[in-house]
């Protein structure tokens, strides 16, 4: 750090209100120049254009707050259609708030075609910052139409992109079948029903702050909370087609706060399971179910016939998404297998029929592709949806 930069930093610490608007000096005075975009060898993408002129950096105490606004134009260098891409953004991989990912699923980019990627997020970086410190934007992975994957995959991009694309294929096939069997009227009714389902009241889950977890650490705390806290059993919603069976589960619950449930499953498929996730639903006193996220399973392989349990141990607070909604209190919980990765690298996701038959369709999260198609219906009408479905 130069003497001038050190003096500027000292002034910012002594009088932050006056120094903050000016931002950091030295190599970070122009944040756009501190952004380095790279594509690893073997990844069939190229960066055509980068515009990071709206990126801003402010000094606050011993941290730099980076408001990243980076617009990229990216070219598909493959001979296949591109289905998804994940960007990894790093300012300091060891610092809280120093790394993030931006995933773009449900793409349909032809060979040699280009597409926009807008990276808008807030990052943190500890001070001091030298000329060698940059904001790294890397392509963590891309997924092609045949589900082949390319990239370093440091952030589990292969699994996420593949599952999203399998869900997209499932939902596109569903809407195409409605059009083929019932015509435009059937597809229009399905679009309207999906929009209505997406507009239903939701709950929002956020990690509980330190000290608010419902599990007590001392006997005195336990006695004090006994009246409010209860162990709630998780109701298993088993899809007949699922390779795993949910055997049991429970969570400590108090009002609108709950620990991630511990769920035990059994592998009833003939293949070893590498990874699985449990879809987590919570219900209110009236029995209305809401998606509460997912609970990751063990990362150890589960052989056919063996059992395994989830490992997440975090407390979450649930609240109604609408400000006018009544205060939410957990009345019950249920869980289902939402995705499975096998040891051979293949995946399983629930079918549309399985979701409908298990009454999960109205409660499970709507796929990114279904949201995209209903967005097209809203903006371009039924013809826009039909034209989009015909591309696949």
Description:
With 392 residues, this protein is α+β, with helices and mostly antiparallel strands. It folds into three domains: 3-154, no CATH class; 163-198 and 371-389, no CATH class; 203-361, Immunoglobulin-like. The chain has helices spanning 3-14, 16-19, 157-198, 219-225, 352-357, 368-389; strands spanning 35-38, 45-51, 56-60, 63-76, 82-90, 99-104, 114-126, 135-144, 149-150, 203-207, 230-236, 244-254, 257-259, 262-267, 273-283, 289-296, 307-309, 315-320, 332-342, 347-348. Strands 10, 11, 12, 13, 14, 15, 16, 17, 18, 19 and 20 form an eleven-stranded mixed beta sheet that branches. Strands 1, 5, 6, 8 and 9 form a five-stranded mixed beta sheet that branches. Strands 2, 3, 4 and 7 form a four-stranded antiparallel beta sheet that branches. Helix 3 (157-198) crosses helix 6. The protein is globular, with a radius of gyration of 24 Å. Residues 1-22 and 211-226 have low confidence and may be disordered.
